Amino acid sequence: MTALDELSPASFAGVPFHIEREVTSGSRAVAIHELAGANDWVTQDRGLKASRARLLCYVAEMAGVKPNSYALWGACESGVGLLSLPHAPPRMAWPLEWERAQERDKIGFVAFEISFADEPPAMLGVSPLLAPAAVASGFAALTSALGSALS
Prior knowledge:
Blueprint: E1 8-12, E2 15-25, E3 28-35, E4 40-48, E5 52-60, H1 68-78, E6 81-84, E7 91-100, E8 109-118, H2 131-150
Antiparallel strand pairs: 1-2, 1-6, 2-5, 3-4, 5-8, 6-7, 7-8
């Protein structure tokens, strides 16, 4: 059994690597409004926050070949790309932080720790930042059309 057999294959922006540890997380944005003197509070659900993945990964290096570690570093610097992990469907993700972890290198492998955040899903081709305005304008158009049809 080789060191490669103990790792799971993955890729980011077309650059292959292997994962030793994968931690994924999700959370909600909840505002808590505490009412002074009332011993009470109100919560406001603001929806899901971006899912994140933290990886300890290894890039295979071969003697006499330009290191794949350069390609992975460059892919992270380039921004959003397709992240394919063994236990999740492929998705677009932003690399948030990446670092070489030289103390974790194995023979023939260069170690990286990388944190990713998922790219938000587009809402019917509309940017998520513009989605509330798109819904509001669509609702206004619908009520206007209904009002015209009923009169």
